[in-house]
Structure formats: C-alpha cells, structure tokens
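SEVERITY: medium
COMPONENT: batch folding queue
REPORTER: lab tech (J.R.)

DESCRIPTION
The queue accepted two submissions in a row. Attaching both inputs and their returned structure tokens so the on-call engineer can compare them side by side.

ATTACHMENT 1
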Amino acid sequence: MKYYQSEVHNAKLGLDVKINDIPVVSDSGDTGGGGGGRLLNTFLLNEPNRLTITLHPAKGAAVPPAGAFAIVNINAFGRERTSKPEAVYHFEWRQTNPPKSLPPTIHAVLPPVVRSEPLSWQNAPKVALNAQSEAAISTLVKRYHDALAAKDAGQLNEMLGNSSRDASVALERPLPDIEASQKREYQEEFAGPSWHVKPVDYAHLQYHLCADGRIVSVMNPDGSAPLVSAPDANGSTSEFNVRVALLHGQWTLVL
C-alpha cells in the first residue's frame, strides 16, 4: 500500500494541477505558497493516471516577473512512513532574466494504483449541465450548508458517506475508522462558540464539469469553495469543497 501526496511550491506565479481531469491544486500566485501536502489516493485509479499542470501569470501581471517559480512534486510513501518518500514525479519552472514565455500545459502520466475495487465516481455516468441539473445540485449544496450551520456532525457524516467509502477503498482503512475520524474533525471544527458558516449566494454559484464529465465541481465566481466558515479570532477560515456525481440516479457528494 502506497500513499501518494502532492508537494507544491510557487511564488509570483499561478498554477493549476489536475489529476484525471479533476482539480487538486489551484493557486492564483498572488500570495505564493502552493498546496503542499495533499493526499491524492482518492483521485488516482487502477489505470494510467493523467496529470496536467498549467502555469499562468499572477493576477494583474502580463508576464511572470523575475523570481517567479513553480515546483510540483508527487511523492509516494508507505503506511508507516519509515523510509524516505519515493519521488514519483517532479516538475520545476523558474523565470529568467530576460524573461521567457510560460510553457504550454504540461502532460504526464502517473502509474496505476492497486485497488481492490473501483472508486464510485470513476463509474459515474457522464452528465450534461442544464437548468434542471444545476437546480438539483444547488439543493444539495443548501442541505450541506444547513448541516454545517446546524453543526450537525452526524448529518454531515451521512451526506459524505459515499466519500468516506471511497476513502476507505483508496486508503485501505476500515470504513468505521474513516467515519469516526471525519466526525471528530467536524466536532473539533464546531467547538468554538462563535463558529458559523457564511451565507451562500446560490444565484451566482458556478458549475464546472471535470473528471471527463463525470463530476460537477461547484464554486463561487472567483473560483473559491462555495462553503466557507467565518474567520475565527486568528482570521482563519475553513473551506468545504463541493464535488458531486450522479450515482444511482441521485446527485451525491464525492471527493
């Protein structure tokens, strides 16, 4: 059993990383930093996995300035992390002086992963977006928001049951352990007396097909997650991504 993890660093340069046509890292480059440390197993399939990396200037810049860079590493490690991670993929780009043009989208292939059964979303039907489907997905987003607003960890666990089952398969962990861990995370999240989730502007939600049309990603017009907690005393917020697939005729939260 191997765990796969992204390690991304960037500054003065935006980048988007997708695996199997699903966004896993998206950074505008305005502040720099990247999306290091994301576990990737639930995005990977038991077939060659498609990796794409797209670089773009930070907001307001026509060309990346001197000092702009992006590094993307995909590493693998064992369950106990007792040895040095295995380098699976490495990409690096740095701006020069005089400046050079950005490369076209980078395409690479990651190896298949051994899986006891397929993940639910990989067999989901391809869908078309229309007013009816978007209204149904919006209703699901509202249910998700209402469960967060009520701080109902049990209801959230139920809504995210499919994601938990996929995580159990992808990480080879018992489903009850995944569900208990998820419930604890929500309970810790809700522990603050002033914790609350921000209102959602449902009229301006955007719906984007990914995973070759099998998944719909829901986001705000600026590309941010639609469900966000209000800042805490330290100014920190929590984002709750919304990705759905049509499973057994029902829009269901995945990933």
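ATTACHMENT 2
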Amino acid sequence: MTAIQYGIYIVDDESGEVLGLADHSQEQFHADDLPGVEWVLERISEAQGDRTALTARKAAIIANLDRQIKAAESREAFMIQRFGPDLEAYAKAETEGKKQRYTDTAFGRLRFTKSPGSIRIDDPQKALVFCSLLFPDAVKTTQSVLVSALKGQEAELPADAFTVTPPRDTFKIETGVK
C-alpha cells in the first residue's frame, strides 16, 4: 500500500480509501463548533454526491451494455435464422455414415441430438373421455390424462384431442461461448 496526498487528504493510491487528513502537525480536528460542523457536513455531502453520481453512472453503463447485449442477440438470431439450414446441411454431410453425430470447427461444434418426442393434450376433456374408455391406466383419479401411459399408443390417439410429436433429431450450434 502506498499512501499519497490528495488535496487535504492522505489516500491509499490502490484502493482510493481516505486514510486521514494530510496535515497531522496541527492539533487533532474536532467538529465542535459551527464552522467545524459545516466543514464535516460539506465533506459528507460531497461524498454522498459522488456516490449518487457513481450510482447514476453505473446505471447508464448497465443500460448501454444491455442495449449492446440485445444488439448482439439480434445479430446471433439473424445469423442462425439465415445460415442455420446451411450449417445443418454441412453437419449432416460431415457426419453421414459416421457414429459421431457432431463436427468441430475452430469456432464451434455442430451437433445433432436425439429428442424423445412428446404428447401434448390439446383438448383435456376429449382426451379424458378417450383415455377413460381405451387407456384407463392413463387416467388419474383427479380426472386428467397421464401422458406417460400413452407412450407407444401415439397412432391411436385422435388428432382433435392430442398433438403427437414423433421422435426426431434436433440440431444445435455450439460456439463454447455462453
């Protein structure tokens, strides 16, 4: 730690912490009269003003960074929307016939993953009536449909009561940057 004189203060030049007053040869200062009290209050007021200004500056910097983040997210979304199909086709060609389902480049990994598929109930009442008759194990006593009990029955589910998403490969773009 190196202490330096800054105006009337002795300051730690690394942390900026005020260590004391510069002139220690005089008697220790006390705020025991109006001029002394006003001097102390003025310094407190200056410190509070500095804190308020720094808080406002911090908020402005954060707002600027938030705008920059949104712009970067927009650029990322555009690049993925515009070039995603090209990257997927490239990855498919690179991984075709190989056990490995990804390809690495200097700037990231193009990877295929398995998605288990899902069943979504679009009309709970119709789904409940249907499952009560044909798949009673899929009906909870609370009178709702237990979707997990319908696995393997996707072909028999009526389209107006269920949306069946078949298993499929999904495509991921990974740059290693979060």
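NOTES FROM REPORTER
The chain has a mean pLDDT of 90.
No errors were logged for either attachment.
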